[in-house]
Amino acid sequence: MAFPSPFYRWRPHPWHGLDAGADPPSLVNAYIEITPFDMVKYELDKVTGYLHVDRPQRSSALPPTLYGFIPRTFCGSRVGALMKSAEKGDGDPLDICVLSERPISRSDVLLQARVVGGLAMNDHGEADDKIIAVLNKDNFWASVTQLDELPPVLVERLRHYFSTYKLVHGEPHNVSVERVYGREEAEHVIRAAMEDYAEEYGE
Hints:
CATH architecture: Alpha-Beta Complex
CATH superfamily: Inorganic pyrophosphatase
Largest sheet: 5 strands, mixed, barrel
Helix content: 10-25%
Radius of gyration: 16 Å
Number of helices: 3
Number of strands: 10
């Protein structure tokens, strides 16, 4: 019996074993770690490729969208250089938030997303950008190609969530969303993250 091509005999590592997408930086793969229903912060274990429990969310805030990362990206020197206030990239894959009309209630899934913009987030001096995208072929969001075509309240929720989700009463807070940017700049950030990955890990 012949296996279909391509065929993975073993499960690929979600960060290193999958590709960035069908047509990056505009149409990308997104590996989803967290859904809008999760009160626990799940995160990819970089060694095994499995999701692990990072921590229960301390606040009552829920993520406004699906949240994960773009495979084979890395926030290194190039990504860090795009944010004037940052000393470097955060050393993680590039994060992505994906809007979907129909609720997707499970993580550890892979989907195709169309990039529309992003958030420039500085986390303790490190560039930690959040790309904003819509689910590809989504019946509701199909016509959206630019960030300013989204309802402003959705972008406001994303900005508020990432500005406050690490906030702990009585402790210093060194996280800020400095600005929101459109598709063109988001694609530039993705290209930089793909180049950072190639330099850090090879093709």
